[in-house]
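Help needed: design a sequence for this.
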């Protein structure tokens, strides 16, 4: 049985891959850490945002990445809560002149932690 610390370490690794995938526009990496049936939803400046994983990844694939645009990497984990084989992570992704906050739901599927839901919003400064 995995301990809380083992799970927290594994989830932190998934979140690190998530940050790298988003920052570098690495769709292959993102596909590996999201469950294929994951949903992405939220609001951006008051506009509703609902995407399937495929739609979300297509958007990442067809945009310039923060890395390509020369942005400084400032993404960070704010908190992780784990209960058995489910978890929620609150993360901060300042990029593209946005101040994104995500709530990522994760599940342990086949012994691996994967993102099953992404909620996002932009918080104006």
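Sure. Designed sequence:
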């Amino acid at each position: 049985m995995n301990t809380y610390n083992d799970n927290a370490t594994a989830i932190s690794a998934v979140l690190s891959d998530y940050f790298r995938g988003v920052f570098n526009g690495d769709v292959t990496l993102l596909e590996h850490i999201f469950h294929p049936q994951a949903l992405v939803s939220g609001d951006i400046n008051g506009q509703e945002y609902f995407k399937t994983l495929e739609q979300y990844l297509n958007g990442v694939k067809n945009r310039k990445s923060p890395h390509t645009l020369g942005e400084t990497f400032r993404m960070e984990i704010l908190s992780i809560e784990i209960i058995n084989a489910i978890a929620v992570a609150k993360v901060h992704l300042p990029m593209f002149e946005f101040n994104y906050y995500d709530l990522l739901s994760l599940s342990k599927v086949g012994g691996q932690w994967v993102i099953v839901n992404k909620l996002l919003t932009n918080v104006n400064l």
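The longest helix spans residues 4-24.
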